[in-house]
Amino acid sequence: MSYYSKHLFMCTNDREDGSNCCQRSNAREMRKYMKNKCKDLGIHNAGQVRINSGGCMGRCGQGPVLVIYPEGIWYTFKNEADLDEIIAQHLVNGNVVKRLQLPS
Known about the structure:
Layout: E1 6-11, H1 27-41, E2 49-54, E3 65-69, E4 73-76, H2 80-92, E5 101-102
Parallel strand pairs: 1-2
Antiparallel strand pairs: 1-3, 3-4, 4-5
Helix pairs in contact: 1-2
């Protein structure tokens, strides 16, 4: 068994040249929101969920993006409501949120 049941990486890359990147959509603030929400729910612990920042994941045109392992499910999101849905459906209930899922 791995140390975490789900390991989530959110791209928080900020391109200095001003080109498209996840941070243009407030990715760092969205990561902080998601991490705090998971802590409040009591699921951000060893054996459960871990949320980390990631550098550029190469999907800038589809961003902001996050990926959840071990499933390798990629998501895009627009706002906190989208993140709430990913938390409730995927992280808590184990269901993929098809409307936010990106091709692997």
